[in-house]
Amino acid sequence: MRHIVLALYLYLCRTLGADTDEAQEIPLHAQMLTGAPLVEYLQKNQDLFEVRTTPTPGFKYKLMDKAFANANQNLNPVVNDDNDTGADLPENYDPRIVWKNCSSFHTIRDQANCGSCWAVSTAAAISDRICIATKGKKQVYASDTDILTCCGARCGLGCRGGWPIEAWKFFEYDGVVSGGPYLGKGCCSPYPLHPCGRHGNDTFYGNCVGMAPTPPCKRKCQPGFRGMYRVDKRYGEPGRTYTLPRSEVKIRRDIKERGSVVAVFAVYEDFSHYQSGIYKHTAGRFTGGYHAVKMIGWGKDNGTDYWLIANSWHDDWGENGFFRMIRGINNCGIEEQVDAGIVDVESL
């Protein structure tokens, strides 16, 4: 029954565009640009980010449906100090430097041609939070596959998209096993989909053609792994999954104190041409899709505040797999839906 309701919701959502402040401020003709005219406009009308002349291969197969843009959760935020000005927070915070021994902060995952960003980014954030919660003593590659395939309709529609807040809840009530990249060894449940497209000298498995179907749930570890599925689980603290308020100060404080969070934003065609620098939506049509990413830190570059974000489109995308997005103006809704959870250290 839930799949029927979701299907109807998806249909209704496709008839609507992204309602963002940026879309209202950008000239109408610029909002309609695509292809070469879009690239030319970006090169002439902004200098915050470098532009690639061709869009990211398989771009549209990596996005979630608009239905998953807003979880409509009424969870009480962990951070409740309305008078927090963030005066004590540093101007720049990069956990890859602060927590340099936590390998998860340096790891870029590859979701392939599947809109699994909601599961991949949550699992990646869980890995970061485990390392911080244990002060670097425990390092776990949390399985995105366990979330993607076994959370079911409660989380969404698998490769067509899902709600990160429900992925965090899955971590809380069901737990997440160890994972790894495609064909990864020494873990319970590695990612089931091979990377698509060409990535330097990496193995070429094929181009990104169509969206992959959601793999089936397997509540058992891969052959060769000695651990048992249920025993390999790590959990979030009961009742400690939360959505942060729309406050860049509170988001920054939570990142610094507890680790990475998961943010969702509306995707426009100019993002598919991002190469490096600080992304700010400038032109191009709304793709009809949304993307969930792991927000790890922040900074300031030549007077421009930005979020530091890990993408899940391979480490040859953007700035070695990462990108920066303008901070404090809710660009593409990036500060509206930010979710996280607390690690149950005793379960590790």
General description of the model:
The chain is of the alpha+beta class. The protein has one domain (22-343): Cathepsin B, Chain A (Alpha-Beta Complex), CATH 3.90.70.10. The protein is 24% helix and 18% strand. It has nine helices and nine strands. Strands 1, 2, 3, 4, 5, 6, 7, 8 and 9 form a nine-stranded mixed sheet that branches. Helix 6 packs across helix 8 (164-173). It is globular, with a radius of gyration of 19 Å. The two termini are 36 Å apart.
Tell me briefly what this model is.
Belongs to the peptidase C1 family. InterPro entries: Papain-like_cys_pep_sf, Pept_asp_AS, Pept_cys_AS, Pept_his_AS, Peptidase_C1A, Peptidase_C1A_C. This protein is an alpha+beta fold.
End-to-end separation in angstroms reads 36 Å
CATH class: Alpha Beta
How many DSSP E strands? 9
**Beta-strand content:** 15-25%
In total, the number of domains comes to 1
* Category by helix and strand content: alpha+beta
Spatial shape: globular
CATH architecture: Alpha-Beta Complex
State the CATH topology.
Answer: Cathepsin B, Chain A
Please identify which CATH superfamily we are dealing with: Cysteine proteinases
State the low-pLDDT regions, or none.
Answer: 7-17
What Rg do the Cα atoms give?
19 Å
Helix content: 10-25%
Q: How does the major sheet shape up?
A: 9 strands, mixed
**Tally of individual helices:** 9
